[in-house]
Design brief:
The complex is a heterotetramer of chains A (456), B (267), C (325) and D (461). Chain C is of the alpha+beta class. Chain C is built from four helices and 13 strands. A four-stranded antiparallel beta sheet of chain C has the order 4-5-6-7, with no helix packed on it. In chain C, strands 8-9-10-11 form a four-stranded antiparallel beta sheet, with no helix packed on it. Chain D is mostly helical. In chain D, the strands form three sheets. A two-stranded antiparallel ribbon of chain D has the order 1-4. In chain D, strand 5 and strand 6 form a beta hairpin. The N and C termini of chain D lie far apart (57 Å). The relative contact order of chain D is 0.11. The chains are: A mainly alpha (456), B mainly alpha (267), C alpha+beta (325), D mainly alpha (461).
Chain lengths: 456, 267, 325, 461
């Protein structure tokens, strides 16, 4: 510690008495398992998103008013473009490093969303959501939704033709809400699509509201985590119910995390060099009434897009409201999936009459319901996502798109239930084979674990 | 541990490979060539080529046939552009007897001779188009208005349903692009002078050339369709997970239980 | 490396590092214990010096209720006034009154329902305070306490709802804007760059995107003009709206999710939406033949005016674009 | 507590063990004195600013591109305006509730500014900045700077004629910095005036500055909680070791809830009565247009006053240009804020405190002669500059020439503070002398150390 730093620290400590709380923080223990790093990766990519994002806001112009582009990009030189798209072109061609930071930003967003999803999967499968952690699990789900919202609004801001099409589809999904659809769509878009308020509002959503919520909820997420301590995987000879075992924040975990964030930043920069994330210049600005072939959203919305593509034609009126395929596939279905996620902890607890607090993680195959539900749900989402690529598949395989769509219609309907049932049966048999039962409380769990240990 | 050390390296190798694949999937660079207007003149060369390759189905008089196993259309009065296009794209003579598939690719010399011969013989109509590249900026707008709906904003192609595949049009011979727009081969709609003027066709050609040379990254990747991008997002995530495996001390999640040590850890 | 020193999960007491190192488990309370606070009767970490128990007072309760009612009512006035487009003065003052009244209500309620405590807090909080949750002290219940509480909650709710009213300002009310387009009788069909079209401008098997001459690039009015090449149009196509037996115009806004239907398969006269692959038969009134949509593309009533230009004969008969309502 | 609420609370408590930390929070003691509420007023007006601001962002268009306005405002119907100004007109005339929320935003901003400054003065005059609280004083000073920056960017987003003038002044101020001035201009404005400034200021105003302010606010409060409040001396209480006051629950909670509602109500009431921020008649910013009597906002009077009354000059020094703008719009405010940052240490040095002694008891403004002299003197100086900006109005009112008014201020701005400082110093000396007189210890709750007198014998001796 350099003398200057020492002096500063001493004088601060005299005034704030930092040592004691400081020691608590530095002694916080982090279980060391690779899967516990997924959350950290998400957090760090969010940090990078904020840093790059703040830079980008300096050049982005949230407006669709036509402006004349003058700059190095010959395709658009001297032509009228929507201000938003014009600023993207300028950012990419005339601002030093602009294109790079746009790519880092987009790459980080992919990483952010992907690792958030994986983190959530880890929590779901290993049972880290069980009492007392339901609260934090729900906070996490809200965070997941927010990441999707942030991703979508960000994808829309360049106002290229793909973005415009995406906004158009979102607008249609809003319209499809029964009774209130039109008014809600008008409230959010400030009028009939496309309005001049649309892009400015998406900008505010993307740079102000969603990030603010994200920051707030991430703070809550971490505070609850600190208060409740980490869960951890079973370790022979450790009573995980009463002790957390792992690396103290200082120095081990600190070192690890520092490495991690540097590594992520490096990886993203490399990816930004190699992969044209978010290059939309040839796609051109959005012009109402035009759409290009193979228009897809970003991957994390494939499941919604896929649902829209494969859902059978449907439109009828009932109780004075219009129920359309777009409504069921674009609103009801995702709602249902998130409802399952939210409700699951309580369902499981009720189903197996679980008791008490749980701090030790659990192999999903040792609790059939969880295995079945999670596999069923996520295979469904994955199949829907695959369905969103039906045009690409058709083009690569030469199979007519109608056939492929029908294939996905059938698989989406029948494969997930089949998989769920399969996993149910398998894990039940597995339990029987190991003559184990689903433990009611943590003591029981550790007993069975000790029993297995004695057998071994 | 040494295996774990290799993992990130492997991941990057995978990135490179996938990038190359994506590039190929996106079609890679295409040929470019020049065209001249073909005069109408009967030549022995053209005559020989016609009798060897075309007459069997279309008949020596070029009136085609209508019996079930040979539905060759009449060539008399057909647009020269269409004939030229069909030959340029190698669709005639067909590889398969049912008229589908791509046959031989003609040398410019043969093709010109044949078209000239047929023009003289069956008085094919209309000019052959060979637009000079114009203003790519205008071309982009024309392309977005008339072509992007099927061929995609970057001319990448796609599907049109009913088993129809929309071809990638980047890096094609200007003549092919221009004549296709005019005659609307196969499933493609026709575009008259009133919709796309000749010089606008030139602009479109220029835009597509621009797209062909655009290489946004050292991997030679141009702008990618979100589906291909998603593949890279997956690779990025994978690389990240491998990094986590590499960084974390403990990789196994549910270790096989071993007899507990003497310290007792029961609740 | 781990020795088992019992550790309460729920109290951040002690330092785990010390535990693992086997050092004596010093609670963070150290240093704090030396000081003794003047004995005013220690109570759960708060040294109560003195407190004044409010006497029950009917007057006070009436004030609370009155204020709460005023607050609630003015919240309603604010919301209604805003929505009904009343003058700024009206709902503005309503908001002001509401907030001020609420302030009074809260103030008076606390004055009546809780003791007025004065306490001493040591600068070093003793960390080991008893884990009980008795109230600070017993207060004689205010008359009609629950009623007061309900009224406060009610007023607060109304205020909350009232403050949600500005949501209505975010956009105009749609009315039938989504059910109408800019097509009216005699409107010419023009291309995106504003050229009016003659029938022969569209080649056989050709298509063109057209707009009402005064509403170019107004999303909902987009129309795709198709020159059928395979088969002549037949019902349910409205044949009166077909020009020289092959030129037909449909709304370009997909009836599924609103993408522009820009893709025409000339061989089977099919219109195809590249977003979700809805397919329409252009020769048969654009009825859907495949994909996720259930409704046909509305056909534009079309004819030719005296100068030989294509014109609309009126607005679409059916609703344009995706489903809503 | 309704059953539902109780159920939720118990469920949470069972999982998070909220009771104990909760009790620590609800038992936090707040000294009971009106001046301790100034900070809360500032905080609550910030809350109002955020709430109304979010509403406004839904309609504001951060762009200067010409836009055809079609709406209810007769004045601009069918005219082409800069998009930003057009959206302001739209907010005021076509958006239900728009004008009210714009006015509330402006009113709350004024309240925020006022309360922050008042809070700062309280801290300075009562010595709440002394060890161990120098850190928090510095954080507070940074927050004041952020508040000024927020107010400035916000006022210019309107993009009316006045914004034009103030933007030009900012442009000139930045440019006046030697050597790097032109770079600063480009970095902030993104090019020639006005170019990118609207979108830049928008991002600053809604994202960056509020973000920083929120962060510092959290830190500020965390430090208050950690170091406990200061308090005024009280008989029979060892203020060095105990805080006397009302616990957060219920007393202080009631007080604060009342306060936030009152602040909201007052801001709303004033917004009905006072046409804050009605700019319809100003018209949009047009290059090459400026208006007479284009005064800055009141909280900038002192700066405008400085550049108004002081004689202009421009020297070439070592190839740099030292200009009037530089001296009075860059150096002067820089010096004042520098003094503010340095003051805690300055006073410690001047009054000769024991550097290792903590002070938790506020002293009365006149308890320390040095402080009285410096703080009141500087305040008077800024106040005189503020008055000086109104010289044209004074001249009109008194029917005298602007020049004479200006000359009056040129002298007064220097003389008045000197007099004030001297008076304050003398008065506080006499106060101390009287207090040292026997039998005067009563009001000072003097079971020392640190009863009433600054925690140091040397000063009172």
């Amino acid at each position: 510690m350099t003398p200057l730093f020492a002096l500063l620290f001493e004088s601060l400590d005299e005034r704030l008495r930092l040592r004691k709380p400081g020691r608590k923080v530095l002694n916080k223990v982090f279980p060391d398992n690779w899967s516990f790093l997924l959350g950290e990766v998400a957090l760090f990519s969010f940090v990078l998103l904020v840093l790059t994002g703040v830079l980008l806001t300096m050049f982005y112009r949230p407006s669709t008013d036509p402006v004349t582009y003058q700059g190095a990009m010959s395709l658009y030189e001297g032509r009228e473009l929507p201000a938003a798209f014009e600023s993207i072109v300028r950012m990419s061609y005339d601002v030093p490093g602009g294109l790079f930071f746009r790519r880092v930003h987009r790459g980080a967003s992919h990483l952010f969303i992907a690792t958030t999803v994986l983190h959530m999967l880890r929590v779901l499968l290993t049972g880290a959501f069980r009492r007392p952690r339901e609260v934090n699990y729900h906070v996490g789900i809200v965070l997941l939704m927010l990441t999707f919202a942030a991703g979508f609004t960000g994808y829309s801001l360049p106002y290229d033709a793909l973005a415009g099409t995406g906004i158009r589809i979102a607008y249609s999904s809003l319209l499809s809400l029964p009774y209130v659809g039109e008014q809600v769509a008008y409230w959010i878009f400030g009028g009939d699509f496309p309005t001049g308020n649309m892009i400015p509002r998406f900008f505010v959503f993307h740079v102000l509201m969603i990030p603010a919520l994200l920051v707030g909820l991430i703070t809550v997420h971490l505070m609850i985590m600190v208060r409740q301590r980490h869960t951890q995987f079973p370790r022979p000879g450790i009573d995980g119910h009463r002790f957390v075992l792992g690396k103290p924040m200082w120095p081990s975990q600190f070192a690890l995390s520092t490495t991690l964030i540097l590594w992520i930043a490096g990886l993203l920069s490399a990816a930004a060099v190699l992969i044209p994330w978010s290059d939309v210049l040839l796609i051109g600005p959005y012009v109402p009434g035009e759409v290009g072939n193979n228009a897809q959203p970003d991957w994390f919305l494939f499941w919604l897009e896929g649902a829209l593509r494969v859902f059978p034609p449907l439109e009828f009126r009932m109780l004075g409201m219009t129920v359309s395929g777009a409504f069921v596939a674009g609103v009801v279905l995702p709602g249902a999936i998130f409802a399952v996620l939210v409700a699951y902890p309580f369902v499981e607890r009720r189903f197996y009459q679980l008791e008490g607090d749980w701090h030790v993680l659990q192999n999903p195959l040792e609790i059939p319901l969880r295995a079945a539900v999670s596999v069923g749900t996520f295979s469904f989402v994955l199949l829907l996502s695959a369905a969103a690529t039906n045009d690409i598949l058709s083009r690569m395989t030469g199979i007519p798109i109608e056939a492929i769509t029908w294939f996905f219609r059938l698989t989406c309907a029948f494969v997930p239930p089949a998989l769920a049932a399969g996993f149910w049966v398998y894990s039940t048999r597995r339990l029987a084979r190991k003559n184990m039962t689903v433990p009611r409380n943590e003591a029981e769990a550790s007993n069975t674990y000790a029993a297995k240990a004695r057998e071994a | 541990m040494s295996r774990a050390r290799l993992l990130p390296v492997a991941a990057w190798a995978a990135v490179a490979v996938a990038a190359a694949l994506a590039w190929l999937a996106a079609g890679g660079p295409g040929p470019a060539g020049a065209v001249q207007q073909a005069p109408a003149e009967e030549t022995p060369r053209g005559d020989r080529l016609y009798t060897t390759h075309c007459a069997r189905c279309h008949g020596a008089d070029g009136r085609g046939a209508t019996d079930p196993h040979n539905r060759a259309p009449t060539l008399v009065g057909m647009e020269a552009a269409r004939v030229d296009l069909v030959l340029r794209t190698g669709r005639m003579p067909p590889a398969d007897p049912d008229g589908s598939g791509r046959g031989r690719s003609w040398s410019d010399r043969d093709r010109e001779a044949l078209v000239a011969h047929m023009t003289a013989l069956f008085n094919l109509e209309g000019p052959l188009l060979g637009p000079e590249p114009g203003d790519p900026a205008v071309g982009r707008e024309v392309f977005a208005t008339h072509c992007a709906a099927c061929h995609g904003y970057t001319g990448d192609g796609g599907v049109a349903g009913g088993g129809a595949i929309v071809p990638r049009v980047v890096g094609l011979d200007p003549a092919v692009i221009a004549q296709a727009a005019r005659v609307g081969p196969f499933q493609m709609p026709r575009f008259a002078e009133g919709q796309i003027s000749d010089e606008e066709l030139g602009d479109v050609v220029a835009y597509l050339d621009e797209v062909a040379v655009e290489q946004a990254t050292p991997l030679g990747l141009g702008e990618l369709n979100p589906v291909f991008l998603s593949a890279f997002a997956a690779l990025l995530t994978l690389a990240m997970i491998l990094s986590c495996l590499f960084l974390a001390g403990r990789v196994t999640m549910f270790p096989d239980p071993e007899p507990p040590p003497d310290v007792d850890g029961e609740t | 490396m781990t020795e088992k020193r019992p550790q309460q999960r729920d109290e951040g007491k002690g330092s785990r590092r010390d535990t693992e190192r086997g050092a004596p488990d010093r609670g963070p309370g150290d240093g704090a214990h030396g000081r003794q606070a003047p004995d005013h009767g220690a109570h759960e970490g708060l040294y109560v010096v003195g407190q004044h128990i409010p006497p029950p007072s009917e007057v006070n309760d009436t004030i609370v209720m009155g204020a709460a009612i005023v607050a609630g009512l003015s919240a309603v006035v604010f919301a209604v006034g805003l929505l009904a487009g009343a003058g700024t003065g009206v709902y503005g003052s309503a908001l002001a009154v509401g907030l001020l009244a609420m302030a009074i209500a809260v103030r008076r309620y606390f004055a009546a329902a809780y003791p007025d405590i004065e306490g001493l807090e040591p600068r070093e909080l003793p960390d080991a305070d008893p884990d009980d949750d008795e109230p600070v002290t017993e207060v004689p219940p205010v008359a009609r306490r629950s009623l007061l509480q309900r009224m406060l909650v009610g007023a607060a709710t109304l205020l909350g709802l009232g403050l949600a009213a500005p949501v209505a300002s975010l956009g105009p009310s749609p009315g039938d804007a989504l059910r109408r387009t800019h097509w009216t009788s005699g409107r010419r069909l023009v291309t995106t760059d504003g050229r009016p079209l003659r029938p022969d401008d569209v080649a056989t098997g050709g298509i063109s995107t057209v707009w009402p001459e005064d509403a170019i690039e107004v999303e909902n009015s987009a129309v795709i003009l198709v020159r059928l090449s395979q088969s002549p149009p037949q019902p349910p196509t409205n044949l009166d709206w077909v020009v020289d037996d092959s030129l037909v115009a449909y709304s370009k806004v997909c009836t599924h999710a609103g993408c522009p239907v820009g893709l025409f398969r000339e061989r089977d006269d099919a219109l195809f939406c590249p977003c979700h692959q809805s397919t329409f038969d252009a020769a048969r009134g654009a009825v859907p033949t495949f994909g996720p949509t259930a409704r046909a593309l509305p056909q534009l009533p079309m004819g030719v005016d005296d100068d030989g230009f294509l014109v609309a004969l009126g607005d679409f008969a059916e609703q344009v674009g995706p489903a809503f309502g | 507590m309704t059953p539902l609420f109780r159920f939720l609370f118990d469920a949470l408590d069972a999982r998070l063990r909220l009771r104990k930390p909760g009790r620590a929070v609800v038992n936090k003691v707040f000294p009971k004195h009106w001046s301790f509420l100034l900070g809360e007023v500032a905080m609550f007006s910030f809350a109002i600013l955020v709430a109304t601001g979010l509403f406004l962002t839904m309609f504001y268009r951060p762009s200067a591109e010409p836009l055809l306005y079609t709406g209810a405002a007769q004045l601009y119907e069918g005219r082409t305006l800069p998009a930003a100004y057009a959206s302001i007109v739209e907010l005021s005339h076509d958006v239900r509730g728009g004008l009210l929320f714009r006015r509330m935003h402006r009113g709350a901003a004024y309240l925020f500014m006022f309360a922050t400054v008042a809070h700062l003065l309280r801290i300075l005059l009562t010595g709440a900045f002394r060890r161990p609280r120098e850190v928090n004083t510095h954080i507070g000073t940074m927050m004041l700077i952020l508040v000024i920056a927020l107010a400035y960017t916000g006022q210019n987003l309107v993009y009316d004629l006045l914004a034009g003038s103030s933007l030009r002044i900012a442009y000139a101020t930045l440019a006046s910095v030697p050597l790097i001035g032109d770079w600063l201009v480009v970095w902030v404005f993104g090019g020639e005036f006005p170019s990118e400034v609207v979108s830049r200021f928008f991002v600053l105003h809604i994202l960056i500055l509020p973000g920083l302010l929120t962060g510092l606010l959290v830190l500020h409060l965390a430090l208050v909680a950690r170091q406990r409040h200061t308090q005024f001396p009280r008989a029979g209480v060892d203020g060095q070791r105990y805080v006397v006051g009302e616990p957060l629950w219920p007393s202080q909670f009631a007080a604060s809830t009342t306060l936030v509602l009152a602040v909201g109500g007052l801001v709303a009431a004033f917004s009905v009565l006072v046409p804050w921020s009605d700019v319809d008649l100003h018209g949009p910013l047009r290059l090459g247009q400026a208006s007479n009597a284009g005064h800055a906002e009141w909280w900038l009077f002192w700066l405008q006053g400085a550049i108004t009354i002081f004689p202009a000059f421009e020297w070439e020094v070592l190839g740099m240009t030292i200009s009037h703008m530089l001296a009075f719009n860059v150096v002067l405010p820089g010096a004042l804020f520098g003094l503010l940052f340095a003051y805690p240490f300055l006073e410690r040095r001047l009054a000769g405190y024991d550097p290792d002694l903590d002070n938790h008891v506020c002293s009365r403004p006149l308890d320390v002669p040095v402080r009285a002299a410096i703080v009141l003197g500087v305040t008077a100086f800024v106040g005189m500059l503020t008055l000086a900006m109104t010289n044209d109005i004074v001249a009109r009112g008194l029917r005298v020439s602007v020049e004479s008014v200006m000359w009056f201020f040129r002298i007064a701005v220097l003389a008045v503070p000197a007099v004030v400082a001297w008076a304050a110093y003398a008065r506080s000396r006499s106060v101390l002398r009287r207090r040292r007189a026997p039998g005067a210890a009563a009001g000072s709750g003097g079971d020392a150390p640190g009863g009433a007198a600054p925690a140091n014998p040397k000063v009172s001796a």
